[in-house]
Design brief:
Helices cover about 35% and strands about 30% of the residues. It starts with a helix and ends with a helix. The chain has a 6-stranded mixed beta sheet, with no helix packed on it. It has about 220 residues and is α+β, with helices and mostly antiparallel strands. The chain has helices at about 1-10, 15-20, 155-185, 190-215, and strands spanning about 30, 35-40, 50-60, 70-75, 75-80, 90, 105, 115-125, 130-145. The structure holds 2-acetamido-2-deoxy-beta-D-glucopyranose (4 copies). One 2-acetamido-2-deoxy-beta-D-glucopyranose binds near residues 136, 137 and 138.
């Protein structure tokens, strides 16, 4: 499903897709017991410059007033910093590169306690010929946890539309068939003959026209 969404975004924003990085917002509704990807993408503005990037993820539960670090990631080196998440966080971002742009993580088994605000803090060091330049980007994702998956309105509406369309088209098709059948049944051989003479009339007319044109030349 994610790849479809990405493809759709690519089609609508071809230019940014060619740059290789699109900052897609994270989904915000997690379902208890399922996995949930907290998406965080921070595109490098200067595509050609080499960069070294690491990310820290923070979490603030509803009751807490401060963010606490839960996860750290640097090339191929994940580190879960909070015991509430031990064994439950997987890396879901750019792989095998120091130059991270997708720094998403995945919670493997969502519980109600995972509800709250997440922050990804990206620290990127751009390497220029004779100096380094350090930038940090922070993004916030508000996650709600629901006991069961809610279907989104768009998918419900499109399903209803589909059924309505099928019913309407079927009725139309049947009506059209009945109409045509009646018309054919009502028409006798006379019509066939009539049509034949019409056809002949037209062809002789065109013949005349052709002769007329030739005569003018
Ligand atoms: C990186 O690898 C992990 C584990 O194999 C995978 O879940 C994740 O989707 C990969 N990331 C990307 C951006 O493909
Ligand atoms: C998910 O968490 C629940 C509650 O903590 C636990 O009972 C269950 O075994 C866990 N499932 C997996 C696949 O880890
Ligand atoms: C990024 O990380 C480097 C190295 O740890 C540190 O010196 C720098 O202050 C960090 N930058 C920001 C903006 O946090
Ligand atoms: C980046 O780091 C500076 C200090 O190093 C800080 O003042 C600023 O708020 C940070 N920006 C973000 C988006 O976190």
């Amino acid at each position: 499903m994610d790849s479809w969404l990405l493809m759709l975004l690519c089609l609508t924003a071809v230019s940014s897709c060619w740059a290789g990085c699109v900052e897609v917002e994270s989904e915000t509704e997690a379902v208890v017991g399922r996995e949930f990807k907290i998406r965080c993408i921070s595109c490098k503005k200067r595509g050609e410059t080499k960069a070294i990037t690491f990310v820290e993820w923070f979490f603030r539960a509803k009751a807490d007033d401060a963010f606490r670090v839960i996860y750290y990631y640097q090339k191929d080196a994940p580190d879960i910093k909070d015991e509430r998440y031990s064994g439950r966080l997987l890396w879901s971002g750019s792989n095998h590169t120091e130059d991270l742009q997708d720094v998403s993580i995945q919670i493997t088994n969502v519980t109600e306690e995972d509800e709250g605000e997440y922050m990804c803090k990206v620290n990127r060091t751009l390497e220029f010929e004779n100096h380094y330049y350090n930038i940090n980007v922070s993004k916030f994702v508000q996650v709600t946890v629901v006991p069961k998956a809610n279907r989104d309105v768009a998918s419900i509406v499109s399903e209803i539309m589909m059924y309505v369309l099928i019913v309407v088209l079927t009725i139309w098709l049947v009506a059209e068939m009945v109409y045509c059948y009646r018309k054919i049944a009502a028409a006798g051989e006379e019509t066939v003959l009539e049509n034949a003479s019409d056809y002949l009339a037209i062809t002789s007319e065109t013949k005349d026209n052709c002769l007329g044109v030739q005569a003018q030349e």
